[in-house]
What does this fold into?
Amino acid sequence: MPFSYRCKDIGYDCSFEFRAKEKKDLLPRIKIHTKYAHNVFEMSPDMIKKVEDACREDL
Ligand SMILES: [Zn+2]
It folds into this structure.
């Protein structure tokens, strides 16, 4: 099953979403998006955890 991530799930007013076959493929893409779209240049460990929790398996 693919994994999906919605930016609004971590509190951004943003309609961006990603989908990938594997969860580990999501994080690098999310990092790039938050950097350019939300000016987050370095994610804190707390934020990375939030992002990982927001990556859900599509059922
Ligand atoms: Zn976003």
Summary: The chain has two helices and three strands. Residues 7, 12, 14, 16, 33, 37-38 surround zinc ion (CB under 6 Å).
